[in-house]
Amino acid sequence: MREQLEKEIVRLKRMVSSLASAVETAVQQAVAAAAGPNSEMAAAVIARDDAIDRTEITIEEECLKILALHQPVAGDLRYIITILKVNGELERIGDLAVNIARHTLDFANRRHEEVPEPVDFTEMVQLVRQMLKRALDALVSRNCLDANEVMRLDGEVDVINRRVIDRAMELIGKYPQNAAYYVDAMFISRHLERIGDCTTNICEDVIYLELGKIVRHSRVEEPE
Questions:
Q1: Distance CA 208, CA 139 (A)
Q2: I need a labelling partner for 192 at 20 to 30 A (CA). Which of 25, 124, 125, 211 fits?
Q3: pTM metric for this prediction
Q4: What pLDDT score was predicted for residue 113?
């Protein structure tokens, strides 16, 4: 029975790794499409969202099956609970990538409009992508210290998001004819900020997995 449980957990790890890779690709392509704007790339991100959703459902079903058939305890139970939570966060990140892609299509449809001062997402995109990659690496290695470092970066993303939104509002007043573009830019900034939040949640799940502690409003250092 124990051997079968271990086999199913290994299979679950592979499924989550595959989902994480698909979601990371979706985020990378969504932000690259927004920088273009590239309508074909944005449409591809949207088209692949159904596959991400199906994988998320399959992983949830597998977790529930393991809980029902094997009734795991201690570390195994924490692992299954963590996977359930991370699975949901990954699906939400995929949805946020789709939202960015949809606003990118709006950009592309208005390419004839000349925007005198485009919004620059470079700093925010680099930071969010770094957070997501490091969070997924921390999950694989079960490294609480790395998870904590990623969580600290979330405050920087919040500051940049506020700065981008304030700048977009200022530019709407300056160029009201381009208001639709700047509204889309604010939504993209907000979606990037939410990806940072979801990434932070994954890091909190890593700490729960390794230490058995629920962390939401504090930071936990890995014991020596």
A1: 11
A2: 211
A3: 0.89
A4: 64
